[in-house]
What does this fold into?
Amino acid sequence: MRRVATFVVGSLGNRLAWITAIAVMLGLWSEGRRGNVAHAAAGPPLTIGFIYVGPKTDYGYNQAHAQGAAALAKLPGVKIREEEMVPETVAVQKTMESMINLDTATLLFPTSFGYFEPHILKEAGKYKNVTFLHCGGLYQDGKHPTNVGSYFGYIDEAQYVAGVVAGLSTKSNKLGFIAAKPIPQVLRNINSYTLGARSANPKATTTVIFTGDWSMPVKEAEAANSLIDQGIDVLTMHVDSPKVIVELAERRGVYVTGYHANQAALAPKGYLTGAEWNWAKVYSDYVAWVQAGKSYPHLLRGGLKDGFVKVSPYGKAVSAAAKKKADAAKAKFMDGTMVVYKGPLKDNTGKVVIAAGVEQKQTDVALEKMDYLVEGVVGKTH
Amino acid sequence: MTIGASSVSEPPSDAAGDAARGPVAATLAPAAADDEIEARRAAIRKMVEAIVVPGAAIGAALVLFGVFIALTGRNPLAVYREMFRGSFGTWFSFQNTLQRAAPLMLTALATALPLRLGLVVLGGEGAMVLGGLAAAAVGVHLHTPTSVKVGMLVTGALVGGSWIAIAGALRANRGVNETISTLLLNYIAIALLNHVVEGPLRDPSSLNKPSTLPIGDDNMLGTLPGLDVHWGLAWGLGACLLFWLVMQRTTFGFAARMVGGNVRAALLNGLPVRRLIVVVTFLGGLGAGLAGAIEVAAIHGTANASLVTGYGYTGVLVAFIARANPLGAIPVAILLGGIGASGGLLQRVFDLPDATVNVLQGILFLAILFSESFYGRRWSFRRARAARQAS
It folds into this structure.
């Protein structure tokens, strides 16, 4: 009898919950219908799909792209559709197809480096009248479909400037760099940062720790703690989301320079500056070309001068002298006279990697295959 | 505790009869005259239950998720309409769903089969990653398209199987908790993948995305005829059916399920419990390893960090919702594939975060787990009423 009673009471409770839920849903439905009608009144805009590999609020790689997308959303005649956390497998192919088939997108920005091969190449072959623009600078003329473009920025220039600030802010002359993988792009950032620091403070060294993957919050925190325990007082990084490292640096009272996006809000005291992407500029240019029906560059790259990357506004802790030095370095990038990689340059095992008299400018392909750490970096590439 | 949904075929003497059903079996015995009718009725009831209970659980989950959506200020019906459009509503969407379901059917096996023995294995991710790595490593050394395909799938499956069997052997011989060991083995597998791909097997021309040498476009698995879905779907369906037959229609499968029901009873009956544990974990791992090999053979053409997709963990969800039934894994994988396929639209149309899909999956998972307690319940009420009227 008691069981029956419980059952009746229980199902009554359930029924109440259901009725409430259905009532709420019906109410919202009618509300939503009105909204939909208003929405449908707009003209046929250019629908642009953005695909991110991680969360778009990661204070890092994906957020930088999402900021670019947000800038496009403000343009007239443009509709943005965004999807985050899309893994680099058949899922991204299906997301692209879904954006094309169900959202009628004709311009796609699949933003993760790993989306290019085979995923974008495959979809570009399938959907010839859709434009695929990819972040990574991997386009090869003649080899890849003509409805594909790939862009990238020389963010190591901003890292160089951040290095100058770091070199003049450290008291222990020890900087720390937490990086994902020892691949050319990452090594170039570490080296530029170190060269920048040592241009302003020859005694500065950069200790590097590789975590092994792009998003490893626990390992990143361990690495940050370990570096701080070694007496390092300025941290920077090349990982997808710098959030953990920046917050930890602030809590432990050391300086930090950011990466990908602006993390000043996470470390109001210790955030010196940072190397940021400026995708808003790149994306606005691309959309203008596509909307005008003009041809667009299939391989597009640029640095500080071109507005592809920028340096975060200096934090409170940056001294006037450091600001002056950093601004001077930035000015040289802006007028194109700065060459970061010039001989004689030794790696951290003493081997000469660029002979005396040789200059490797920003666009030199030799830099794309970088496999060394320059003198002044404490760490190994493997 | 029986986990299988289709305990229909289990003989009445099944030692695995769960505690809730115990008294039912006891009341059956006196009514010897109506034995056959009762048995038939019980069979029908179980079949109906196997459909109605999970169906109702899914319905309840959808209502709960609707409330959640309403709380975020969106219209739940509009959300469901878009979800349907994105998952089953168009031919494109349905193929999208099937494509996403394919690897889940295979990774689900890594959890589903050991679950029949009462083992909770979470190692599908690691088995899949290593299966893919091994397949890529072998694939580049073979030369004809057929040998590449066969070699990759066989190697991938065997490596995946062996990987989960490690946890099975540790469980059988040293009493190591298989849940913890398989979870940790996932981390080891991913670390191994990264090490091998960035070190010994790295294609020197893969600069910023370290990968193994590509197997070549001619050696890739293609799409199913008439569909825009790769061959992984056929392998997934085939493997689920095969393992269902093995578990449900062979003495081996019966022995395995008996271990799951009661280890002591199994031992008393002279069943080789340790060997069964190792073999079943191996068989489960075959599925996940095969999923990895197919990822490489049908999609990537090379092994790299992109193999770490989380399919192994979603497979755990599939296995539990399917109540460890390999055949049940097929519709569940399609359901979750559909949720995955429509998840993008939730983000794009309603500006909901990606985690929304996780919320729905979580609610589904809990609803299905709670619904376990409803099996045989309605029946016992009617029985109780009948007993009262009789007295």
Remarks:
- Chain A touches chain B through 51 residues (CB under 8 Å).
- Residues 1-13, 30-42 of chain A have pLDDT under 50 and may be disordered.
- The longest helix of chain A spans residues 2-40.
